[in-house]
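Field reference: sequence -> structure
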Amino acid sequence: MTYHDTGMQGLPSLLQIGDPAPNFQARTTQGEISLSDYRGNWVLLFSHPADFTPVCTSEFIALAQANERFEALNCRLLAVSVDSLYSHLAWIRAIREKFGVTIPFPVIEDPSLVIGEAYCMINETASDAATMRSTFFIDPDGIIRTILCYPATIGRSVEEMLRILAALQKVDSDQVLTPAGWQPGDDILLPPHQDQRGMLDAEGEGNCWFYRTQPDKEKGAL
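Structure field:
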């Protein structure tokens, strides 16, 4: 296995929303890839501490079954685990044989924890890979837009991943905001007025200047 250093040096101590996603090149269950290969697509990069674990197996099955829904949103799924490529191949084969589910997305090997460290999921003093339970939403320009972290005992929500992805795309395309629990087709929020005239006009129309809703012009569920 070979990793190529493509800008991981000098990273901040903790990746934040709005940071460029560190690029990498690594072996996967679908051949060698670079993160930069996916530029122009949304990417959901999700990590696992080990293969053949029950929670991660349930997530692989759920994400595989929802893969077409992510693709419909121009999003590619990428899994990464600290185990070797051969362990990954054995795991996805076992999932296919035991549950009849084929894993359609690449599973990246990271036995040296290069990717885990670059994405600040694990540090040099960690005794194991238990903290490799993060999800990064990366936009088509390679910018991290959302980060979710889960403990090893709680499975991720695929529906929430889809909702966040749709909300990020809605915000980008329409320059709006999404309220709590927003689903495609729900009302969206307009940015608050930034000047006194706008505030007074809104209040004169009986509206709340800092909480303005508008019907979503694109109806439809995920």
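Note: Residues 175-214 form one domain.
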